[in-house]
Amino acid sequence: MRILAIDTSSNVATAAVLEEGKLTGEYILNHKKTHSQKIMPMIDELLKSCELDVCDIDIFAAANGPGSFTGLRIGVATVKGLAHTAKKPIVGVSTLEAMAYNVLYSPYLLSPIMDARCGQVYNGLYRWNDADFREIKPPRALSIEECVGELLKQNSKVVFMGDGVPVHKDFISKAMGEQAFFAPAPFAYQRAGSVAQLAYEKALRGEVCNYLEFMPFYLRKSQAEREYEKREKTR
Question: Before 184, cis peptide (omega within 30)?
Answer without folding.
Answer: no
